[in-house]
């Protein structure tokens, strides 16, 4: 009973606290109750609106309340339509595009067309090609000369008429017909114009493609209004794709109605008369800058702002002047790049103080990734020791081998760079001369590049002529630059492959097995490939009255032609005492077009669809050689690879270099019709990569550790 008093007191105090909120609590409870009652009354008056929506306007169906689905859906049965191929129709291989860019309809940014002539095709046009061709996806040369001899590495289009209006009209028609769907911008220039390719590409990248634009150096017509302007052809001009599409129907009319001695004036009048569009020098904040070079003006002494910022320079009277201009602008771009690097390094150094690590987190050289940090002892990067004559890390496992070839040149370049950096740092107080290399260490860091540590014995010479021998340790780094994506020509798996099989008399029996394998792997699946048999007779073989040693091979080839209608196995007979791959391929290549993709095989080669497709996709004319790896499946003889496959596809002017490998044939033969390399059973080079990692300039920092 004594506990009741405190409980009653606590209850009274609680009620006193809740008494002001009691009307609010009662009102909320009553409102919720009435709302629930009203909802139940509304739902009871009609059907469920969700069920009516599912039933649709077609009326009520048998509805299952448990599943919420129509009973008629359960009776639905899919009908499978079988596919029957007509046996009378020939088999056709379905080809899909190799790249997603083709299916999406994506276009390249810029195509450059150069107007040239008979007199300047082999001089100025070649100079243009050597200075800017590697900067653009496609560079075409248009001339009115009929049957013009094409210089190596240039794509020349001959119209057969050198009249200015005709040449310009046919050039625009050719661009529209063959490249109108593949490029957004078309830059037309003359061969006496130097173009700063990186700046022009950047200009095209900043312009919108969804408008008609005629951009260049605007000039006034003689006797015309001020608004009527044309773009001077000597300084080049840009045409948008949409403008070219609109201009195409008016080309024939303009060619007959407009008379002009200059192609650029003819184009300007055609655009104004037919479309009402004139030339502009500025668009969307982008200014088209050009520079007119005075006669006998030295590019090295030209320093005006108009020259330094120009996209194009005109006129260029000779090829040597073109190369001097290119050297001048390349030096300017290099200086600009180095100055930007120094500014970025200064900014990084200033901001590093504000980071949690402070100056300790600053890597050397500034702006490059920090050295690789191993997580276990198995990931530690080892150093290779070398001297000026020997290296102590040999490929064959030997403890010591001579330092030669590319390794010797690499070490020499590192030593010369170290001396250059030392003299630049301490001159004019000291001048260093190398006596010898004491010790050298190098290693490749995948995150940074090639690192060097050199112990040099130097002779320091003061301004007064005093000399002293010093030993200094120098640390250098040859950094890896950004991976460069090279614009490559388009290749497909539909390219025809021309197989070439040289046969000696001793290989006639083994050739029968090759023909059966060729029929099973190439002819049966209808691969787009042809075969040429090159029958090599000896000096005293196959003469009059003597039996033909290749009679069985010819009979087997004829049997395959009969078995597979439409197939033709050609054969050529040559007589040689010591057969050379160069001479044999020269005989074959003369009977095929210059863009033929050859595959040099042996009787032990077993070409299949996968091997042929690899050759098609990896051998790019003028860009990339392909050396397929092989596995031995037959005997070896001196001078010929008995492997599968030993054939090789390679472009005639491939930029990639190879140190070992197979017998190389050529796609896109130039002046040389074959590229022979001796076969090797020990090493097989891989195909060169399309993405290329460049190497930057050796950057060195010197630290005096040894006195």
Question: In a few lines, what is going on in this structure?
Answer:
The protein contains 17 helices and 27 strands.
Question: How is this structure best described in words?
Answer:
This protein is of the alpha/beta class and 707 residues long. It folds into three domains: 100-314, Spore Coat Polysaccharide Biosynthesis Protein SpsA, Chain A, CATH 3.90.550.50; 379-485, Nuclear Transport Factor 2, Chain: A; 497-689. Helices cover 31% and strands 21% of the residues. It contains 17 helices and 27 strands. It has a six-stranded mixed sheet. Strands 14, 17, 18, 19, 26 and 27 form a six-stranded antiparallel sheet that branches. Helix 5 packs parallel to helix 12 and helix 6 packs across helix 10. It is extended, with a radius of gyration of 39 Å.
What is the alpha-carbon Rg in Å? 39 Å
Uncertain residue segments = 49-69, 632-707
Q: What multimeric state do the chains show?
A: single chain
How many helices? The count is: 17
For the sheet with most strands, the description reads: 6 strands, mixed
User: Between the first and last Cα atoms, what is the distance in angstroms?
Assistant: 101 Å
CATH topology of the largest domain: Spore Coat Polysaccharide Biosynthesis Protein SpsA, Chain A
Please indicate the percent range of residues in DSSP E strands (runs of 2 or more). 15-25%
Q: What average pLDDT do the residues reach?
A: 78
CATH architecture of the largest domain: Alpha-Beta Complex
Strand order of the largest sheet: 3-2-1-4-9-6
Spatial shape: extended
CATH C-level label of the largest domain:
Alpha Beta
| Strand segment count | 27
- How much helix is in the residues? 25-40%
The number of domains = 3
SSE class: alpha/beta
């Amino acid at each position: 009973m004594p506990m009741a008093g405190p409980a009653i007191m606590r209850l009274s105090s609680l009620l006193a606290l809740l008494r002001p909120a009691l009307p609010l609590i009662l009102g909320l409870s009553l409102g919720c109750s009435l709302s629930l009652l009203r909802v139940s009354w509304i739902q009871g008056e009609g059907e469920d609106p969700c069920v009516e929506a599912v039933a649709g306007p077609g009326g009520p169906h048998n509805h299952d309340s448990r599943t919420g689905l129509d009973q008629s859906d359960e009776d639905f049965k899919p009908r499978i339509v079988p596919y029957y191929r007509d046996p009378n129709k020939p088999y056709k291989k379905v080809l899909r595009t190799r790249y997603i860019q083709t299916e999406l309809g994506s276009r390249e940014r810029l195509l450059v067309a150069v107007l040239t002539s008979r007199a300047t095709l082999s001089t100025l046009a070649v100079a243009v090609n050597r200075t800017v061709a590697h900067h653009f996806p496609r560079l075409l040369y248009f001339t009115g000369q009929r049957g013009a001899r094409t210089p190596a590495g240039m794509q020349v289009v001959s119209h057969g008429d050198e009249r200015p209006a005709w040449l310009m009209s046919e050039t625009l028609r050719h661009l529209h017909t063959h490249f109108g769907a593949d490029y957004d911008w078309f830059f037309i220039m003359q061969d006496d114009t130097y173009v700063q390719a990186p700046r022009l590409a950047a200009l095209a990248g900043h312009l919108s493609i969804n408008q008609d634009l005629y951009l260049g150096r605007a000039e006034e017509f003689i006797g015309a209004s001020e608004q009527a302007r044309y773009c001077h052809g000597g300084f080049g001009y840009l045409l948008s794709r949409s403008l070219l599409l609109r201009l195409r129907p008016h080309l024939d009319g303009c060619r007959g109605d407009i008379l002009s001695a200059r192609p650029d004036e003819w184009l300007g009048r055609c655009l104004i008369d037919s479309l009402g569009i004139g030339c502009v020098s500025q668009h969307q904040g982008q200014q088209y800058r050009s520079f007119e070079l005075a006669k006998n003006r030295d590019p090295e002494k030209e320093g005006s702002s108009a020259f330094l910022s120009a996209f194009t320079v005109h006129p260029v009277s000779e090829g040597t002047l073109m190369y001097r201009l290119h050297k001048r602008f390349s030096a300017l771009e290099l200086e600009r790049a180095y100055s930007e690097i120094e500014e970025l390094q200064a900014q990084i150094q200033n901001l590093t103080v504000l980071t949690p690590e402070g100056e300790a987190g600053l890597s050397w050289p500034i702006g490059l990734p920090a050295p690789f940090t191993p997580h276990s002892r198995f990931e530690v990067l080892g150093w290779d020791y070398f001297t000026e004559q020997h290296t102590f890390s040999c490929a064959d496992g030997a403890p010591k081998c001579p330092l030669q070839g590319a390794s010797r040149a690499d070490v020499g370049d590192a030593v010369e760079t170290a001396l250059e950096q030392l003299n630049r740092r301490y001159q004019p107080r000291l001048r260093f001369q190398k006596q010898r290399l004491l010790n050298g260490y190098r290693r490749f860091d995948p995150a940074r590049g090639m690192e060097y540590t050199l112990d040099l014995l130097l002779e320091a010479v003061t301004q007064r002529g005093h000399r002293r021998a010093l030993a200094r340790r120098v640390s250098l780094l040859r950094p890896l630059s950004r991976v460069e994506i090279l614009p490559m020509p388009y290749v497909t798996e539909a390219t025809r492959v021309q197989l070439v099989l040289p046969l000696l008399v001793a290989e006639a029996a083994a050739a029968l097995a090759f023909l059966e394998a060729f029929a099973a792997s190439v002819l049966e699946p209808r691969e787009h490939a042809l075969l040429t048999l090159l029958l090599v007779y000896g000096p005293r073989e196959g003469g009059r009255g003597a039996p033909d040693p290749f009679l069985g091979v010819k009979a087997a080839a004829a049997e395959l032609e009969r078995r597979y209608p439409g197939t033709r196995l050609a054969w050529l007979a040559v007589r040689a005492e010591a057969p050379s791959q160069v001479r044999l391929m020269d005989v074959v290549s003369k009977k095929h077009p210059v863009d033929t993709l050859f595959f040099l095989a042996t009787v032990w080669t077993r070409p299949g669809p996968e091997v042929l497709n690899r050759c098609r996709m990896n051998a790019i004319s003028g860009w990339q050689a392909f050396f397929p790896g092989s596995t031995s499946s037959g005997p070896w003889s001196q001078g010929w690879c008995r492997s599968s496959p030993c054939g090789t596809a390679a472009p005639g002017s491939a930029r990639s270099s190879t140190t070992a490998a197979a017998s190389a044939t050529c796609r896109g033969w130039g002046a040389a019709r074959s590229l022979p390399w001796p076969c090797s059973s020990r090493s097989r080079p891989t195909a060169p990569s399309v993405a290329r990692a460049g190497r930057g300039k050796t950057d060195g920092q010197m630290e005096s550790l040894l006195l």
